[in-house]
Write a structure and sequence with these properties.
343 residues; alpha/beta; Alpha-Beta Plaits; disordered C terminus; binds adenosine-5'-triphosphate
């Protein structure tokens, strides 16, 4: 398990040994397995894991919607569910799609809500602006895109000015434009000092907005900490060689032979190295200048050397390696497929 030091400050969410076992006719199913979750104050915390890894169950327990089998939970330092009434006013959550009236405008829907919870109308205008719906608040809800509907749901939770916002898969079912809109809203909230717990199964998407993250698989904690610490320093580099360094047969054959020869040189020098299908080399080295020097001393010249950044998907594969069937990366963990690729 990879766990790095959390950010300073008292955690906003804390669970210890949190466990949820569902019992059915077919036997028992452990949805959450002794989970220690620590969410620091401020910023966006990714709660990541494939479908069925226990994210929603954990969130439901935190909000008092499901009863833990065992373990303890705290929100803002208060034991929950016992002290939930004391803290729930500081928590906003979008766990399921909220019910809005289709024939009312976004603003009318929010005003109904603000009056029902007794907060001033100004909060509606502020919430509309925060989620980027200004200019569209007078349109009927039924005409909103899915992304706009999701942002209105977030606006509804902002009415009570929460210090903690819990969003369960807020970009599910959205197209790339919708994902981007919601992502920008979440980034803005994190910057304004709201602590956001963002659950998602799309790592590439989450990596762009999260300052810290917890990765779960089969209800278990796999890794947790600040994203930059989790991803660590860049130690892998992609190297391409200058054509003609080695001459042999066709250009392609020559490239591969040169790569294999260079890989032998690097490996002998203690630098782990793999030849890629395109004839480039993937070299592990703390200091890239050693790669240049080692190859130069062997008479091999580099055309390029570029750092290869590890991402959360790489991390997930590493922390689940050897855990047996069912922990492979599901196809929908690719952000690109879900429109969650880089901006
Ligand atoms: N009410 C329930 N009764 C029985 N099993 C349940 C119940 N709710 C969830 N589960 C099971 O618990 C496991 C965890 O589900 P959960 O919804 O918490 O995962 P998740 O990580 O949120 O997945 P998703 O991204 O698909 O929502 C799954 O195997 C699910 O089938």
């Amino acid at each position: 398990m990879t766990t790095t030091a959390p950010a300073t400050g008292a955690p906003v969410i804390e669970t210890h040994g949190l466990r949820k076992v569902y019992r059915g006719r077919k036997g028992t199913h452990v949805a959450v397995a002794d989970l220690d979750l620590l969410v620091p104050a401020g910023g966006v915390h990714g709660f990541l894991g494939p479908n069925g890894s226990g994210k929603t169950t954990t969130i439901r327990m935190l909000l008092g919607l499901a009863r833990p089998t065992s373990g303890s939970m705290r929100l803002f330092g208060e034991e929950v569910p016992a002290r939930l009434p004391a803290v729930i006013g500081r928590v906003g959550a979008v766990v399921e799609s909220p019910k809005f009236s289709p024939n009312l405008t976004g603003r009318q829907n929010l005003r109904l809500l603000s009056r029902s919870i007794g907060v001033p109308d100004e909060r509606v205008e502020r919430a509309v602006a925060t989620v980027g719906l200004t200019g569209r608040e007078k349109d009927r809800y039924k005409g909103y895109s899915l992304g706009m509907k999701q942002r209105l749901a977030i606006a509804a939770t902002l009415l009570k000015d929460p210090a903690l916002l819990i969003l369960d898969e807020p970009t599910n079912g959205l197209d790339p434009a919708g994902i981007r809109e919601v992502r920008d809203t979440i980034t803005g909230l994190g910057e304004q000092g709201v602590t956001v717990l963002l659950s998602s199964h799309i790592l590439a998407e989450v990596q762009q907005v999260c300052s810290s993250a917890t990765i779960v698989g089969r209800g278990r904690l796999l890794a947790s900490g600040r994203v930059e610490d989790l991803l660590g320093a860049v130690t892998r580099h992609r190297v391409t060689l200058t054509p003609g360094t080695h001459e042999a047969g066709t250009h392609e054959a020559g490239t591969h032979e040169a790569a294999r020869s260079a890989a032998g040189v690097l490996t002998s020098a203690g630098l782990p190295c793999e030849v890629q299908d395109d004839g480039s080399l993937l070299v592990t080295a703390e200091d890239p200048t050693i790669v240049t020097r080692t190859l130069g001393e062997a008479g091999t010249w580099l055309a390029s050397l570029a750092p290869v950044k590890r991402d959360l998907e790489d991390l997930f594969l590493e922390v689940t390696a050897g855990q047996g069937p069912g922990m492979d990366m599901p196809p929908d963990w690719s952000g690109a497929e879900q429109g969650g690729a880089a901006r």
